[in-house]
């Protein structure tokens, strides 16, 4: 599992390299960020020949370790101009692991406008023409690809918005059953993939050798302990039951649920979109509905779900907290069916639901449609589908939408719309939004589950720092953040499983150290790209406009926030 | 001439202050930048209550010194996020001088969405409702205002695009005859004025006392010498004859005339849009046409013109080099009549011709319309007029247009489209674009008339540094850059005239020192706003794509460019 595949788009040449012994622990985000930091000019034109798109699997890829098959995708972000890593579940990293592939790197630009797939199996690697897939939305395109290459392939794919290089476009990855719904959504990486002329990456692991486990007994033992711990963990049990949507009640109570373009932190229709209601609707409707679904092989948390319509047919999978808030409460929409439709259509078009939700809310704030206008919101996605000018605006994400419409209040940092936590009410996330190497991003340093007074400034910098390091560590291993909940007493399980798989000694401290080095490398890239610590600010209105529901402003000082990167 | 007027938009209160003795030399850009630097939070929301719009007259305001009545307008730029000063000729600063006003500062936001004028005469200062002017284009609005307040008033005004807070909107100022055509175009200051709910500033100097000249004999003598020098200066004579359009042949020969979205530096239709042809068309058509027109009282250079249609009726005034290139060659349009129409319509809508020309060219590069499509270009301005979504995109300037359309090559620095000099062929301007405190801007440090090899990297940093300091000095005094041509042997005339008017001793060195301090203050503001010297870069394609006409790339090293601000 140490093959690195480089595709030179200019020539079409595909090369193989191998990680050296010293690079054995380099995977996931540690690897994408290292490649970008070392090989990409921080000042390059984002759609130019010198930007690179890097897909990297984690250290557990190809095994059935719970939550262990996340895929990292990186590049210089078209949306933010910073370094970017966005990761997702699904079956792609699993198949990369089985095929012995640690990373896939796209370099250069095709000599002329073109659309191709990258196909990889045990026997073959090839760029294949994809012209007939041009402007094809993601669900039908995936269906067609699976028809062409078989049901068992894994697929990473962009929609029409990625092809158009729209800045809010992401990359969809197939889940365990082949749904193209696990999104590397943030940072406009779909547009970067589009600029390389790549519609999809298709991995066929049918004849793959799989991962050779160096110490199968140790792996089995640790995996068993871990799974038991997960199943006994109450908090993780709530994920299994309610999915991430369980968060709605928590943030709503804290006044942290983004509502009406971050003008409020509580939503009068919160009960209609919370985890309880989601669970109830799914279970009552039955059919293919499933409140606890696993997005990848081996996961025992199963935070994913399948949301059915009232006939029991699938509407979308998964329906997650960030989407429920950004396309829901933040747009004044308190209807799960509508949110599910919006979600499905974003997925199909290739759009990040967070930045798109932000864009729709900004269009609402500008008066294009009123808050709460369900049909209006759906119609904005029709506009994207039809590639109208208004559709182009929305697909360029919240910041550009807000700027083009002349809106004062744009809830974003470094060009990227905030996730579903008002930074005035969950101040640790405010620190993360401001300081993260990725722009406003919750997964960069999630503090909401930390035992801390979220409304108070005190301790938030330390909390964010800790979260940023831990979260980055999971991104580097290729595991879901949620796993952290099961590791409180046994962090060494993380490194034990690496030892078991790869036969190298490794400690938890070493993993933390890789995370820290990765963060510093990313920060250095950003500094070389023109970002200074004076860019580590939230928009002014969060400092001066009280959130009426949390009754707080953001008041963590900039001097304090500078300490986030005080580590070695 | 030392009154400072502050308008608090929240309360409608208008206050007067007076410059202290120590501040007597503080005027023009030195004053706008000082106010912004000291009073505006660099991280403020650009359309929020903490941004300010500052108008400042120069040190010669209210006199008839040639080129001595430029108006500076500043704020934190909605387009670039940097500090911004944009200046223009016309009669506004003259009237401010006569009324004893050095600066007008708009603070805060009106409590509700509203549209007002600021009216100032010797007897009265008032905010007046302007609701009936809502969305009214600039020419009819100015006509109506002059009807309401008399033909002699001076007016600074925004168009519908400023009201809509579109990022490419500027502020128009009346010229000597009351045409609203002298533009503070760059940096989106029209949007900032729009955010304050101010449609226009109307100055009535009919009963004004005028400027008390401390040493009339010295002023008269120096003015006479200066005017003689101007009239004997061959280079300035070309300005009088051809206007700034004389530049077309020079840049075209150097391969520096932006053509087809900066993909070429020479235009096959250059002869149709050069100074000779402009002069010929104007003189042949006669009527109100005038090849050498003065935009303000007292100017003997008269670089302005009145461009007539084939019936001898006015099409637009002035038609200038930057516009001819950005709306002309850069869009593949080689027809002065069409360029004049585009210019008129930009003026009328309140748009900066440079950023709008850049946006149209980027729409052409994206295939919205082909290069050279004259009707298509005019139609894009129809879209702006009708406030369609495509119109909103164009009115947001070149960078957002390029980003929304997914274009790779966006010729801009810090969010602002480059002026009409390809930086690969006039490398001193490349240095200015990269390092200026204002984003890509030619007036920030114009090197094209310097005796230097424009194609070579050597000496360009020194040239840009010198130009940036000299140009800033003129912005601080409130004089046209062109004046510099007449000062080669007598720079002291500049300070002598200040002594004559204000009765304070002042040297040329002191003026240079104010310029340097202003630049450093601006740079400091930008650094506090998040800009580092790593932001002082051109887009990558200028470094790697050879300009086929100059056969050069931009190759001044970043390390060299850092030296631009090495002065005290
Ligand atoms: S915890 Fe959720 S995201 Fe992670 S692997 Fe399981 S289902 Fe997928
Ligand atoms: S030189 Fe040109 S811009 Fe300057 S005052 Fe004269 S006409 Fe106006």
How would you portray this structure in words?
The structure is a homodimer of 568-residue chains. Chain A is of the alpha+beta class. Chain A has a domain at 3-204: Aldehyde Ferredoxin Oxidoreductase,  A, domain 1, CATH 3.60.9.10. In chain A, 39% of the residues lie in helices and 15% in strands. Chain A has 22 helices and 17 strands. Chain A has helices spanning 28-39, 92-98, 138-149, 160-163, 189-195, 216-232, 234-242, 247-254, 270-273, 275-285, 321-328, 336-349, 353-365, 374-385, 389-395, 398-404, 427-435, 460-477, 492-502, 508-528, 541-544, 558-561, and strands at residues 3-8, 13-18, 53-57, 71-76, 83-88, 101-107, 116-121, 125-129, 154-157, 171-174, 180-184, 198-204, 290-293, 304-308, 314-316, 412-413, 416-417. In chain A, the strands form four sheets. In chain A, strands 2-1-6-3-4-5 form a six-stranded mixed beta sheet, with helices on both faces. Chain A has a six-stranded mixed beta sheet with strand order 8-7-12-9-10-11. In chain A, strands 13-14-15 form a three-stranded antiparallel beta sheet. In chain A, a hairpin with a 5-residue loop joins strand 10 (171-174) and strand 11. In chain A, helix 1 (28-39) packs across helix 18, helix 6 (216-232) packs antiparallel against helix 19 (492-502) and helix 18 (460-477) packs across helix 20 (508-528). The longest helix of chain A has 21 residues, at 508-528. The first copy, chain A, is globular. Chain A starts with a strand and ends in a 7-residue tail after the last helix. At the A-B interface, helix 5, helix 15 and helix 16 of A face helix 5, helix 15 and helix 16 of B. The structure holds iron/sulfur cluster (2 copies). One iron/sulfur cluster binds at residues 67, 89, 294-296, 299, 301-304, 480, 482 of chain A. One iron/sulfur cluster (SF4) binds next to loops of chain A.
């Amino acid at each position: 599992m140490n093959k690195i595949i480089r595709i030179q788009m200019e020539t079409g040449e595909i090369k193989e390299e191998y990680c050296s012994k010293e690079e054995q622990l380099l995977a996931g985000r540690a690897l994408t960020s290292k490649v970008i930091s070392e090989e990409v000019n921080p000042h390059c034109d984002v759609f130019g020949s010198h930007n690179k798109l890097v897909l990297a699997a984690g250290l557990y890829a190809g095994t059935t370790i719970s939550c262990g098959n996340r895929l990292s995708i990186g590049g210089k972000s078209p949306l933010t101009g910073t370094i970017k890593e966005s990761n997702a579940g699904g079956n792609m990293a699993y198949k990369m692991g089985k095929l012995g592939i640690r990373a896939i790197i796209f370099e250069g630009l095709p000599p002329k406008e073109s659309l191709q797939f990258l196909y990889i199996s045990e026997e073959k690697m090839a760029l294949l023409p994809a012209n007939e897939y041009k402007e094809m939305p993601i669900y039908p395109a995936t269906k067609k690809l699976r028809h062409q290459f078989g049901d068992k392939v894994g697929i990473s794919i962009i929609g029409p918005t990625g092809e158009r290089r729209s800045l809010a476009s992401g990359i969809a990855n197939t889940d365990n059953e082949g749904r193209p719904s696990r999104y590397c959504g943030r940072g406009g990486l779909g547009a970067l993939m589009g600029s390389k002329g790549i519609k999809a990456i298709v991995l066929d692991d049918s004849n793959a050798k799989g991962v050779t486990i160096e110490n199968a007994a140790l792996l089995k033992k640790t995996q068993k302990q871990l799974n038991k711990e997960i199943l006994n963990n109450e908090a993780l049990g709530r994920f299994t039951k309610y999915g991430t949507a369980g968060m709605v009640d928590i943030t709503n109570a804290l006044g942290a649920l983004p509502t009406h373009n971050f003008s409020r932190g509580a939503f009068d229709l919160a009960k209609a979109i919370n985890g309880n209601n989601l669970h109830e609707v799914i279970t009552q409707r039955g059919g293919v509905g499933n409140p606890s679904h696993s997005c990848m092989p081996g996961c025992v948390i199963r935070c994913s779900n399948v949301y059915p319509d009232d006939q029991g047919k699938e509407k979308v999978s998964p329906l997650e907290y960030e989407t429920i808030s950004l396309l829901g409460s933040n747009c004044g929409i308190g209807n799960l069916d509508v949110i599910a439709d919006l979600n499905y259509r974003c997925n199909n078009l290739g759009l990040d639901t967070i930045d798109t939700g932000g864009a729709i809310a900004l269009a609402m704030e500008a008066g294009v449609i009123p808050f709460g206008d369900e049909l209006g919101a759906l119609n904005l996605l029709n506009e994207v589908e039809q590639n109208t000018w208004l559709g182009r605006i929305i697909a360029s994400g919240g910041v550009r939408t807000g700027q083009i419409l002349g809106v004062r209040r744009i809830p974003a940092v470094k060009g990227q719309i905030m996730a579903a936590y008002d930074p005035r009410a969950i101040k640790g996330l405010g620190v993360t939004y401001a300081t993260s190497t990725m722009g406003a991003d919750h997964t960069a340093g999630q503090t909401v589950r930390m035992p801390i007074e979220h409304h108070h400034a005190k301790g938030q910098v330390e909390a964010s720092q800790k979260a940023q390091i831990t979260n980055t560590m999971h991104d580097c291993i290729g595991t879901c953040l949620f796993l952290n909940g099961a590791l409180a007493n046994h962090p060494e399980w993380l490194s034990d499983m690496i030892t078991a798989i790869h036969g190298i000694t490794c400690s938890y401290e070493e993993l933390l150290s890789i995370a820290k080095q990765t963060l510093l490398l990313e920060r250095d890239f950003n500094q070389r790209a023109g970002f200074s610590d004076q860019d580590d600010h939230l928009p002014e209105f969060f400092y001066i406009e009280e959130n009426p529901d949390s009754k707080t402003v953001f008041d963590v000082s900039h001097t304090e926030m500078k300490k986030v990167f005080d580590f070695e």
